[in-house]
Amino acid sequence: MLRRDRWALAGAITVAVLGVAAVAADLLTAIEGQDPYTYRSEVLDPQTGGPAGALGGVSGEHWFGVEPLSGRDLFAIVVHGARTSFLIGLAATAVSVVLGVLIGAGAGYLGGWVDRVVTWIADVFLGFPYLVFMIALGAVVPSSVSRPLLLIVVIGFFGWPSIARIVRAQVLTLKKRNFVSAARILGASPRQVFRAELLPNLWAPIIVVATLSIPGKIGLEAALSFLGVGIPQPTPSWGRAISTAVEWVVTDPMFLFFPGGALFLATWGFTVFGDGLRDALDPKTEVRR
Amino acid sequence: MRTLKFVAARLAGTLLVLLVVVFVTYVVFYLVPSDPAQLSCGRPCTEQNLALAREFMGLDDPAWRQFLDFLGGIVTGRTFGVGATSIHCAAPCFGYSFQQNADVVVLITERLPVTVSLAVGAALLWLVTGVGAGVFSALRRGTVWDRITLAGSVAGVSAPVYLVGLLGILVLGFTLDVVPVGGYVPFAESPVDWAWHLVLPWSVLAFSHAAVYIRLTRSQMLETLGEDYIRTARANGLRESKVVGRHALRNVLLPVVTVFGIDLGSLLGGAVITERVFSLPGLGSLLTDAVNQRDLPLLLGCTLFSAFLIVLANVLVDLCYGALDPRARLT
User: Which PROSITE patterns does the UniProt entry name for this protein (chain B) (predicted)?
Assistant: First the structure.
């Protein structure tokens, strides 16, 4: 199914390429002969502090050029930044999915007051100014707390309601099916029903909603790093690189182009791949295309 | 009567939500091991000064007492310290920034016009273009135009607003030099300059947001056009423009209104990223400044204010829902 959808295929390939770059970041930078941490003043223009040479210092030695003011290798920053982005995006999604599936399935299956309370809390969460809250939180949490861990937990925690909603709706329809009733009448506990009857039927929607929520989480990490409350120096991050690029956008546009392009490709890839997955797994949406 | 009851129930629920938001925000901010007294105590900070600052800010009291004082301040205002050096923070008091020596509400209202100008202008732009392009795309399903619109909207969803903003600055601002790239001119000073300085930020925000509306409008439109009542309308000999414009669009707008309310509400709470890119002195930059100065009361105030706006937007959406969809009024 997916193979016929050229957009989704392009998205999948983009994600795969960036994923490989993230995993093999050390290998790739070793081939290039650079690393993302070494400051090199000799590749900078002493007058401006920007990269020496055309196109932001792109050369055989520095494939994507160098960072202004520090002279760190931009290719190394971009591939190691991919590692940061993917790690936080995927881990935060995992947190959201686990919470969302447990809470959503619980609310849908148990019903009654549990359902009402969960729905209400989810509404509160969806109406919470999470970006403002995360920025403020990033500012007040002491720097001894690991930033990647904080980002994963906070971004993941705020993501459960949208997943819980979808899972709850699915469980509500599954609950009325005969095989679930049969299991219940035979004396299966809610936990057994969840593991053996509900979960196998929930995988498709879970995978779709998880894939579609990854780009938002990658974007959120980049946005927080862009604003200076995300990943701190010296860990490479796309968002922080773009934030530095604000001051250099006129004199050194290549410094915006590479990390910005990588971030765009990552979110774009996950979005079109997720759309394709949804169309492949949910026949209802495919008709509408 | 029924409408009145609906509104009253919604308002009561809203109040409860706000209370929960205040409570959660307060707990998180004050559980975090950082000391506002320490931060505003000045250097060198002696033990004595620190103790004085703590007492002045009311940080000596137990946590529950501080929370109740905070809540009370919103209703009646509060006074920090006693005697000649005391500071009064008038109701509604959402806190007092000891670092800037200013009432948080005053700081917020000073910045509000910038953010409102930015958010409302952009919102109108993206609502019109997003819904328009979505309807257009749905009516020409499968054509080249449809595919171009869809590809554009996927790009808009994927591109972060600061990336689009920086590209806009680079291409339109510097290379072509057609629009100003930043700064804010108050509306009262010169309406023309006000709009001219906001053209680029509006367009950038609208581009990023419109994408969602295009996708939403298009899929909703396609679903609606397949409904029986649309066929009935057509069979009755209604003109196509009337079928789409009056009968279909009304149904399409329901989910759009929901998303629109939340988007506008959260944007009004501070378009943090856009304001940073275009150096606009709005609520978002107030928040960024508060972050850099570790100004806790101001951070708390900003968070609560944006929560308030989002919740308010949700209530307005619910009320609009009632007006747009007769079925929603009965529940």
Answer: ABC_TM1
Residue A50 · residue A245 · CB < 8 Å: no
Gap between the Cα atoms of A131 and A116, Å rounded: 26
- The pTM of the full predicted model, rounded to 2 decimals, is 0.84
Minimum distance, in Å, between the CA of residue A22 and any CA atom of chain B: 19
ipTM surpassing 0.85: no
Neighboring chain B residues of A282 at a CB cutoff of 8 Å: none
CB B68 within 8 A of CB B92: no
Q: What is the pLDDT of residues B166-220, one digit of tens each?
A: 888 888 877 777 777 777 878 778 788 888 888 889 988 898 888 889 988 888 8
CB contact under 8 A, A139 and B154: no
- Whether A100 has a pLDDT exceeding 50, the answer reads yes
Min Cα distance A122 → chain B (Å) is 11
Range scoring the smallest mean pLDDT among A49-53, B257-261, B327-331: B327-331
DSSP structure string for chain A:
-GGG-HHHHHHHHHHHHHHHHHHTHHHHHHHHT--SS---GGGB-TTTSSBSSSGGG--SSSTT-B-TTT--BHHHHHHHHHHHHHHHHHHHHHHHHHHHHHHHHHHHHH-HHHHHHHHHHHHHHHTS-HHHHHHHHHHHS-TTS-HHHHHHHHHHHHTHHHHHHHHHHHHHHHHTSHHHHHHHHTT--HHHIIIIIIHHHHHHHHHHHHHHHHHHHHHHHHHHHHTTSSSPTTS--HHHHHHHHHHHTTT-THHHHHHHHHHHHHHHHHHHHHHHHHHHH-HHHHHT-
CB pair distance less than 8 Å for B272 and A142 = no
CA A164 centroid distance within chain: 18
Contact A223 B166 (CB under 8 A): no
Interface test with B, best of A126, A132, A227 (most B CBs within 10 A): A132
Does residue A3 register a pLDDT over 60? Answer: no
Q: Do A129 and B266 touch (CB under 8 A)?
A: yes
Structural contact between residues A143 and A231, judged by C-beta atoms closer than 8 angstroms:
no
Contacts of B160 in chain A (CB under 8 A): 219, 222-223, 226, 263-264, 267
B236-257 average pLDDT score? 81
Each residue's pLDDT tens digit, B265-289: 878 876 888 888 888 888 888 888 8
The residue with greater pLDDT, B31 or A109, is A109
| Interchain pair A227, B272: CB under 8 A | yes
Residue B323 and residue B318: Cα distance in Å, rounded? 9
Express each pLDDT in B68-102 by its tens digit: 887 877 777 777 766 666 777 777 777 788 777 78
A284-A14-A219-A204 Cα dihedral, nearest 10 degrees: 30
Residue of A104, A119, A218 whose CA lies nearest to A164 = A104
**Residue A88 confidence (pLDDT):** 93
Q: How far apart are CA A255 and CA B246, in angstroms?
A: 49
Interface probe for A, chosen from B111, B157, B216, B218 (most Cβ of A below 10 Å), is: B157
Of A123, A222, A249, the CB nearest to B160: A222
